[in-house]
Amino acid sequence: MRFGFDIDDTLINLREHAFHIYNRKLNQTIDLNEFHKLNTLEIHTLYGLSDIEGKEMWNDSLEEIYFTDCAIFSGALDFLKELEQQGHEIFYITARNKAYCRKTKEWMIKQGFPVKDGNFYCGMKDHEKINIIQKLSLDYYFDDKPEVLNTLTDESVSCFVKDQSYNRAMNLPRLVDWSEYHEKLKAKGLK
Ligand SMILES: [Mg+2]
């Protein structure tokens, strides 16, 4: 089988990592519960920042957000490693800016993710992901962003939405916990 994965907020807990960095940099102690209540992908409203200020804050913090110790969602790494062991194809499809692609691939390898040369797609826009997903004839695709998943509704690929506070309105098979999902697939006999 051919599996495609978005990275940020699908495999790794990037937004929450950014939240902790913002708290530190802005000398704030916003409660994590407030973060979990947000129904927007952007987190700057928690700090009273305008959209422009929020964008600046994000861009100024990006190197630190991307390339430090962002947590991997529990069970995600084990799941992907097992897929690789069983001979499935794993593709990464991330809309991170082109300038960060090489470093992102290196970071993923350093975390232990199975990354095959040629299976790492980066630097496209959200609405362009569909072209890659079609070209790769994926069987499964996982993402957190409604803007991406909404483009895939007519495709044959089985899509899953990684559960986040900002995507609860999406009516797609929902993946809350990677370990649970892994167990379910095993029970269905995916080898
Ligand atoms: Mg994402």
UniProtKB/TrEMBL annotation:
**What's the top EC group for this one?**
hydrolase
The record places the active site at 6 (nucleophile), 8 (proton donor)
Q: Which GO terms describe its molecular function?
A: 5'-nucleotidase activity
The record's EC number reads 3.1.3.-
What keywords would UniProt list here? Answer: Hydrolase
Quote the Pfam families the UniProt record gives: NT5C (PF06941)
Q: Which SUPFAM superfamilies match?
A: HAD-like
| GO biological process per UniProt | deoxyribonucleotide catabolic process
Q: Which family does it belong to?
A: Belongs to the 5'(3')-deoxyribonucleotidase family.
What protein name is recorded for this chain?
Answer: Nucleotidase
Source organism: Cytobacillus horneckiae
The upper taxonomy is: Bacteria, Bacillati, Bacillota, Bacilli, Bacillales
